[in-house]
Amino acid sequence: MGTTQLESVPEPKYWHLKTVIGEALDSEFQVGEILPNERELAARFGVARATLRQALEQLELEGRLQRRRGVGTTVAPPRVGVDVSTARHRWPGAGEESWQAVDCVTAPPPAAVLRLLEADDAPDGGADRPVYAVRRLRATHGQALAAEQLYVPAASVPGLVTSQSLTGPALARGVLRELERLPLEGQDRAVELGSARADDARELDRLPGAPVLVVTTRYLSGGRTAAVSLATYRADTCRLTFGDAGDLQIAS
Amino acid sequence: MGTTQLESVPEPKYWHLKTVIGEALDSEFQVGEILPNERELAARFGVARATLRQALEQLELEGRLQRRRGVGTTVAPPRVGVDVSTARHRWPGAGEESWQAVDCVTAPPPAAVLRLLEADDAPDGGADRPVYAVRRLRATHGQALAAEQLYVPAASVPGLVTSQSLTGPALARGVLRELERLPLEGQDRAVELGSARADDARELDRLPGAPVLVVTTRYLSGGRTAAVSLATYRADTCRLTFGDAGDLQIAS
DNA sequence: CAGTGGTCTAGACCACCGG
DNA sequence: CGGTGGTCTAGACCACTGT
């Protein structure tokens, strides 16, 4: 990656920089290789560090670079295809090895989730009814992919034995096990762009505000919403696939 | 007494700003309302304009704000739920009113698309075989939502009459019409984060590099890939829904 | 500890939009 | 034309990582 003459075109410098560096990544670098640090790159291209950073940010957003404070900037591997297909009609945790239940509390869900859970109930909101908040993590090859918050109203798992001292992971697994006893009638799913909350960011090994793909799933049983899942996937490393498109490989 | 815990983890200013402004949006502003300009907001919060902009960028990424050069910053309406479900098993253009075919040329597809199209063919790549590139736009209420590039190998539409002078939109509609005659056996679909190319950005009324959700669809017929679609949705305004989750409404 | 990326500042000029 | 957001600069300091 040599020094390149930046033309005086209406095209923003950082946009041109992004193109130049992107091409260099294809031709002169290998996955995992460390790039020169930002100060040197900026000097080499004759721009301010902030401008150089704007280009790197874009490349990171597109999953081509990976930057870590205190370490450096490395060439990222191609995005991982993560199956989130709804076709199998399964409850969360049923035969899924990639997810790991890590905790469960009875914290009240955020207002937006409450609206989904209680949409078909009395309009009093029912905010007093207990709701299990199951925390799960999804990983492959030791890499954290997603953090999920699964909200399960206690009414959905009446068989759950709560008298004994089930805590944390054990309680989480208990809730998931009870959920599987219900007949699953359907799922609603939506994907949108978001930014990682502080707790999600920590578990995904990212900084707060990092771009994530938020997958909202509503599990239906008995004509009602039996559970709501809010899963945040690392947008830089994940490509969500539906159906058997696991080998799709497209750059943006 | 020894060490007193004083702000062990200083929250970045822009992160705090984002929270403060976000709360103000909920309580003191209405959809469509214009915010004070960036220089005044920065002065009001006692920060540099660049820092204030970092907070606004995050809020725009989450779909809470809309900024337009020369105009100002406005409070954005909730994201539009856009149905991209694969369940209906339809060819593109079949009974879809929201899409509008605008053009069609026989340009060669990008390498990544070629790999999908020719995956099951001879490894020579077949780059010489003609491929129709249909351009479509998706809009609701006059708002552009997505721009799509649909690649259809000529071999998939043998019945298409090309002798007459079909051009642009007419040719595009012709290709789509012929596509519907094939038996559609399945679709592979993937969603990932990308940044808008210059041409997409223009049609989506965004600046180049704006965040988009890239939906890659592979249409299967006769055991082969009959067409490949690359659709870019505005990430700031769109929430992609699968199934009948049209009324899902979750903030990130 | 030295070196990395992350945050922040206080300016400047430019591209675009509306009146 | 004036006002807006978009780009860019040349610094500074901070938080984190590895050794």
From TrEMBL, chains A, B:
Pfam families: GntR, UTRA. Keywords: DNA-binding, Transcription, Transcription regulation. SUPFAM superfamilies: Chorismate lyase-like, Winged helix' DNA-binding domain. Residues 11-78 form the HTH gntR-type domain. This is GntR family transcriptional regulator. It comes from Streptomyces tamarix. The lineage of its organism: Bacteria, Bacillati, Actinomycetota, Actinomycetes, Kitasatosporales.
